[in-house]
């Protein structure tokens, strides 16, 4: 991957680079973890991530998914190597989420319903879902600020899960694992409930294969089999020989954790 | 943030895997499962035993996870491969697949949670359905440090265990009460059952190898036909 030689962009990147990383040519060169490093590699890495950031902010202004998929092969390569820059991750995710779920669902209303569940009959018929969600929200990411104490992060997490599992997709209901996805979305979206619920719907109902979290865990188990096959392929010419049952057990555990 | 959390998780798995694969120094390998309703303390119990640690900040187990610990019992090095399972009913399709080949079960309920106690019979049925006949089971009433919130008495636990023909312990992963004893007792009764089987059917000595990660020669036969 080479950096665009477009001089205007290049200049702006260089300015940003100096600003963010306080990178002076005469100083010792360190990577982002503080290790002494090869100057060229570090420069390349910083340039690449700034380049992504730059291009993405420009793309965000155009706000067009079509533009993304058709003309951004070079960005795709960069993202696969360096990830989406943290500063704009939420914006990027939201564009994709919105493109998946459209605007048929009244997210605000769903969250409102979820936070005011009083209907005894519903509470009764979904008692298992409520019980499991209430058990899990307290033990999802207890080592993160937002969810550490009885803070509103936990309440938000609960609303999102109830919103999805009871209001949006009651046939799937709640499955352990959704709690981690919802919490991660809340972290990325800086506590924004609406965006996080939209993200959860997009991931489970649109990005995942169908029936991922259904009552037979159809999609989860398909994933496990795929992982096992991949590992079998990758280790077939290797000196490692796996006992078949053990391999299955370990890959199944890995795919879920 | 995403990368680092992924790395942390992957790192943990790698370590376990390497340790498991590298440590060939044992006489027997026993596969043990911890089962029971959601939130009774299965993960805490395992961490207390394997790492001697406790935190109230454990996360819910998705699907299944495992730890390995080697113990000395009756002059033998016994490697325990201990599987920690998700309690949610939906994951039973996945967890019951692990019952096959398990030599011991720790069936856990929470003494402060009546429902988890009422589910014990259900779990016993699961074991009978999916595991081999000689699997040994210990019934464990966890969280016995929470006396104020207790709703299941020691006597009721003991009585149920007697009815079901299981050994019984009350434990606390938090206060480290009886955790080690449960595992030691389980290893002992598995060993007893094993020598019983060997006595009655000597061909078992040449039985297929037990659950193992690699095809390297075994130090000693696992002696258990699963």
TrEMBL record, chain A:
SUPFAM superfamilies per the UniProt record, alphabetical: Ypt/Rab-GAP domain of gyp1p (SSF47923)
InterPro entries: Rab-GAP-TBC_dom (IPR000195), Rab-GAP_TBC_sf (IPR035969), Rab_GAP_TBC_domain (IPR050302)
Domain called Rab-GAP TBC: residue spans: 83-257
GO MF annotation, one: small GTPase binding
Protein name in UniProt: Rab-GAP TBC domain-containing protein
Automatic annotation (TrEMBL), chain B:
UniProt feature, compositional bias: Polar residues: 213-226
Region feature (Disordered): 201-226
Keyword DNA-binding attached: no
InterPro entries according to UniProt: P-loop_NTPase (IPR027417), Rab3 (IPR037872), Small_GTP-bd (IPR005225), Small_GTPase (IPR001806), Small_GTPase_Rab (IPR050305)
PANTHER family the record matches: LD44762P
Family: Belongs to the small GTPase superfamily. Rab family.
Name the UniProt record assigns to this protein: Ras-related protein Rab-3
Organism (species): Medioppia subpectinata
């Amino acid at each position: 991957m080479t950096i665009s030689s477009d001089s205007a962009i290049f200049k702006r990147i260089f300015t940003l680079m100096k600003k963010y990383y306080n990178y002076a040519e005469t100083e010792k060169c360190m990577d982002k973890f503080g290790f002494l490093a090869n100057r060229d590699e570090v420069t390349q890495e910083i340039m690449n991530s700034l380049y992504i950031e730059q291009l993405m902010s420009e793309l965000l202004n155009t706000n067009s998914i079509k533009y993304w998929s058709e003309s951004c092969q070079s960005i795709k390569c960069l993202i696969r190597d360096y990830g989406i820059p943290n500063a704009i991750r939420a914006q990027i995710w939201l564009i994709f989420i919105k493109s998946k779920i459209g605007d048929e669902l009244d997210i605000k209303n769903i969250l409102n319903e979820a936070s005011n569940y009083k209907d005894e009959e519903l509470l009764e018929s979904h008692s298992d879902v409520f019980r499991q969600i209430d058990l899990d929200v307290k033990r999802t990411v207890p080592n993160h600020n937002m969810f550490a104490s009885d803070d509103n992060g936990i309440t938000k997490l609960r609303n999102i899960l109830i919103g999805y599992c009871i209001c949006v997709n009651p046939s799937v209901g709640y499955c352990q694992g959704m709690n981690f996805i919802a919490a991660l979305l809340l972290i990325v979206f800086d506590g924004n409930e609406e965006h996080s619920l939209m993200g959860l719907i997009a991931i489970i109902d649109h990005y995942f294969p169908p029936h991922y979290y259904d009552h037979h865990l159809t999609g989860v188990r398909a994933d496990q089999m795929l992982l096992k096959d991949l590992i079998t392929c990758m280790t077939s010419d290797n000196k490692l020989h796996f006992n078949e049952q053990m391999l299955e057990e370990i890959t199944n555990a890995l795919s879920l954790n | 943030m995403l990368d680092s959390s992924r790395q942390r998780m992957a790192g943990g798995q790698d370590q376990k895997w390497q340790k498991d694969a590298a440590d060939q120094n044992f006489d027997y390998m026993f596969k043990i499962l911890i089962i029971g309703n959601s939130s009774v303390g299965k993960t805490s119990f395992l961490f207390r035993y394997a790492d001697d640690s406790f935190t109230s900040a454990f996360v819910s187990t998705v699907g299944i996870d495992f730890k390995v610990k080697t113990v000395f019992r009756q002059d033998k090095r016994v490697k325990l491969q201990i599987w920690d399972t998700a309690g949610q009913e939906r994951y039973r399709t996945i967890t019951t697949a692990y019952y096959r080949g398990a030599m011991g079960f720790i069936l856990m309920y929470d003494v402060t949670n009546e429902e988890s106690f009422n589910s014990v019979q259900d779990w016993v049925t699961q074991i009978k359905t999916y595991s081999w006949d000689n699997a040994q089971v210990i019934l464990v009433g966890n969280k016995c440090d929470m006396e104020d919130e207790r709703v299941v008495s020691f006597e009721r636990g003991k009585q149920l265990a007697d009815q079901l023909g299981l050994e019984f312990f009350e434990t606390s992963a938090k206060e480290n009460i009886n955790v080690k004893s449960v595992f030691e007792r389980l290893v002992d009764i598995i060993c007893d059952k094993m020598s019983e089987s060997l006595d009655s059917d000597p061909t078992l000595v040449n039985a297929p190898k037990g659950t193992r990660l690699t095809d390297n020669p075994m130090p000693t036969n696992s002696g258990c036909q699963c």
